[in-house]
Amino acid sequence: MVAKTLYDKLWDEHVVRVDDNGTALLYIDRQLIHEVTSPQAFEGLRLAGRKPWRTSANLAVPDHNVPTTDRTAGIADPVARVQVEALGTNCLTFGITELNMGDKRQGVVHVIGPEQGFTLPGSTVVCGDSHTATHGAFGALAFGIGTSEVEHALATQTLIQRKSKSMLISVDGKLGAGVTAKDIVLAIIGKIGTAGGTGYVIEFGGEAIRDLSMEGRMTVCNMAIEAGARAGLIGVDEKTVDYMRGRPLAPAGELFERAAAHWRTLVSDAGAQFDTVIHLDAAEVQPQITWGTSPEMVLPVDGKVPSPEDAGDEVKASGIRRALDYMGLTAGTPLTEIRPDKVFIGSCTNSRIEDLRAAAEIAKGRKVAEGIKLAMVVPGSGLVKEQAEAEGLDKIFTEAGFEWREPGCSMCLAMNADRLEPGERCASTSNRNFEGRQGQGGRTHLVSPAMAAAAAVTGHFVDVREL
Amino acid sequence: MEAFKNFTGVVAPLDRANVDTDAIIPKQFLKSIKRTGFGPYLFDEWRYLDHGEPDMDCSGRPRNPEFVLNDPRFAQAQILLARENFGCGSSREHAPWALTDFGFRVILAPSFADIFFNNSFKNGLLPIVLDAKTIDALFAKAGGETPLSISVDLSAQTLTLDDGSVIDFDVDAGSKRRLIEGLDDIGLTLQEVETIRAYEERRRQEAPWLFI
């Protein structure tokens, strides 16, 4: 028998048919839907007189536009309100389950999918959102799609796809203390670049990946898209199976055991061939901070802001010049001298219980530094919020001077009221430091939750291991 | 979708790498529930000096004179010349909607981000990958006094420059056919209802937990 990669297995199980030129019709088991990329898809169905192929294969939640402050008065922004209401109406019309803003299970789409057990190992998962890569942590083939494909998946339960190339990134050995999943994935992007994974599905393996919790694995896969990959994947093990047990939408009883037996086969076979293999020594990964306007513009915490003269070519040099200008930084400045104005702990990358625990551990008994205008914690879902409150994390944060908010995408992309003002600098646990991402003229530094909390309590970036 | 017709158009050079979809169409415009009307807000934060909001009248907004699309030579451009990893980041299809609404029909770059690349084909926008050397040469030509103009022939898969030189390009056969014929993907897929149902029935037996 030919040794298969995990990606080969997932692909082969989901091909409905394939053309001579390699274009396949791929069956989609699960679609997550949010308010921003779906209204035009539902409108398309309506105009063509079509219905969803299988309503139970879909789960909807508003997250991008929802306020993270008191929600009893609804959404103040009338344009955002219309969009969130449109999701509710569309779900009602087409018979799709929605966890609406009043539901305690509501949250960021990539947090609630796994939390509810909607995301299953071995399934294909799509969503009109690039961070769908997150669900690959469960050995699911999960990728972001545009609105036309949202409509296609709704109407046909399939997508027209071509198979990607396969890459294995093996993170060997053990991580040092204070180094997290976020640092691993930022270091990987720093190494291979934001286009390093273009055309590939990346499987993350190695001891350091196997040592991660499911939350940590989600953080790594979440940012596979930031390396340009179609999807990120991690093979199934007992942690995966244990995580699934008892989830509301996961199978139960005898069916669970049958499913689990299959899930355990969802690993790359020994000797499976990848198109590219990259190794990273976990022991060398340090806490990471981005300094520029692309996730690949990242350095270890003891680094200094680079100079355009260090770049290999003119396109790169002009990219660095533009980034330094936008970020208001001078080449040669130690990263630990950079002082954020705001701190954001949240997003589909880092808003799960483990992330909040890591940030709370730093915040405990300390105070947000004077220079910080706002430090906010936005849990990934209502259930994460509930769990954190049961553990007393909310108290730790509010006593330290952090704001404790309602769940949503919030300042990761600043579609709601949570945003940076022009020139403001943010230590953020989100995934993108693009120009204007957190608000026009806003300056983003991507870090882990512990590093963000450390910046909040000291007023500047600092090596969390030295606190 | 409208069928893709051959045309001759002006090339606008956008000389930066990793242009992300947040830059192509900023988040505040994603609150729209329509597919149209995004063109005036294309590259909003680079194109204008003030802060843009949905439904704003852009005719009187202060423009950034340094931005390529504000140069009168490129105001009617139909071909965008870009650097590597164009369209990275968010999956928002609003990016190709804004580009086509502005008037772009072809984008030339050494590489594209995957989701953007797929989204473009669904909207009659043709992304063409050319090697870095060819892209460099086109940037050198596109920056002159007289803008560079290119004739695009999708059937023949050629770009003919105004000096008569010809560049061949690759395109996936299925995508090419759908563009030329202006086919509706969903309509095509639904011709295979029986195949999909047969697959589904088999999977219900093999992996019933996926159908609860």
UniProtKB/TrEMBL annotation, chain A:
Molecular functions (GO terms): 3-isopropylmalate dehydratase activity; 4 iron, 4 sulfur cluster binding; metal ion binding
Broadest EC class assigned to this enzyme: lyase
Domain Aconitase/3-isopropylmalate dehydratase large subunit alpha/beta/alpha stretches: 8-459
InterPro entries recorded: 3-IsopropMal_deHydase_lsu (IPR004430), Acnase/IPM_dHydase_lsu_aba_1/3 (IPR015931), Acoase/IPM_deHydtase_lsu_aba (IPR001030), Aconitase_4Fe-4S_BS (IPR018136), Aconitase_4Fe-4S_dom (IPR036008), IPM_dehydratase_rel_enz (IPR050067), IPMI_cat (IPR033941)
Keyword RNA-binding: no
Keywords from the named record: 4Fe-4S, Amino-acid biosynthesis, Branched-chain amino acid biosynthesis, Iron, Iron-sulfur, Leucine biosynthesis, Lyase, Metal-binding
Pathway per the UniProt entry: Amino-acid biosynthesis; L-leucine biosynthesis; L-leucine from 3-methyl-2-oxobutanoate: step 2/4
Annotated catalysed reactions: (2R,3S)-3-isopropylmalate = (2S)-2-isopropylmalate
Cofactor(s) named in the record: [4Fe-4S] cluster
One Pfam family matching this protein: Aconitase
Co-factor remark: Binds 1 [4Fe-4S] cluster per subunit.
UniProt cross-references to PANTHER family, sorted A to Z: 3-ISOPROPYLMALATE DEHYDRATASE, HOMOACONITASE, MITOCHONDRIAL-RELATED
Stated family: Belongs to the aconitase/IPM isomerase family. LeuC type 1 subfamily.
Quaternary context: Heterodimer of LeuC and LeuD.
Descriptive protein name: 3-isopropylmalate dehydratase large subunit
Annotated source species: Imhoffiella purpurea
From TrEMBL, chain B:
Keyword Amino-acid biosynthesis: yes
Annotated metabolic or biological route of this protein: Amino-acid biosynthesis; L-leucine biosynthesis; L-leucine from 3-methyl-2-oxobutanoate: step 2/4
TM stretches of this protein: none
Domain (Aconitase A/isopropylmalate dehydratase small subunit swivel) ranges: 1-131
GO molecular function terms attached to this record: 3-isopropylmalate dehydratase activity
UniProt xrefs under NCBIfam families: leuD, PRK01641.1
Known role: Catalyzes the isomerization between 2-isopropylmalate and 3-isopropylmalate, via the formation of 2-isopropylmaleate.
Protein name: 3-isopropylmalate dehydratase small subunit
Organism expressing this protein natively: Imhoffiella purpurea
Record gene name: leuD
